[in-house]
Design a protein that fits this description.
Distance between the termini: 52 Å
CATH superfamily of the largest domain: Winged helix-like DNA-binding domain superfamily/Winged helix DNA-binding domain
Radius of gyration: 18 Å
Strand content: under 5%
Number of strands: 0
CATH class of the largest domain: Mainly Alpha
Largest sheet: none
Number of domains: 2
Shape: elongated
CATH architecture of the largest domain: Orthogonal Bundle
Structural class: mainly alpha
CATH topology of the largest domain: Arc Repressor Mutant, subunit A
Length: 113
């Protein structure tokens, strides 16, 4: 599949929708009307010839525009540490992912005790 050319805003919309955000949340974050976000989504649908935004996300994955991202896929918190980098300065979500992981582990230990 040939990857369509996307604007930075369209790419951000795809990424954030793929991570479960709604058009309403995007509108609030971007400081625009939800209708504007829907219009951006409609342009993405046309570019991919998709039936829905979920279909567009799927096609973007197939085209290599989006990749399956979870905390740590880009390098990982411990990979930063092993390389001597500051993982808390990571802009890819390592600090948030690490905090969530640690909180989950603490909760599991409390429940097990």
């Amino acid at each position: 599949m040939n990857a369509p050319s996307l604007s930075p805003r369209q790419l951000e919309l795809l990424r954030r929708v793929a991570n479960g955000e709604t058009y309403r949340q995007l509108a609030s974050d971007w400081g625009v009307a939800e209708l504007s976000v829907r219009a951006t989504g409609a342009r993405v649908l046309r570019k991919f010839d998709a039936n829905s935004i979920a279909h567009a996300v799927h096609l973007a994955h197939l085209a290599g525009i989006l990749r399956r991202e979870r905390h740590g896929d880009h390098a990982g918190f411990t990979a930063h540490v092993r390389r001597g980098e500051d993982p808390w300065a990571c802009t890819q979500g390592c600090p948030e992912g690490e905090r969530a992981y640690r909180a989950e582990r603490r909760q599991q230990r409390k429940e097990a005790a």
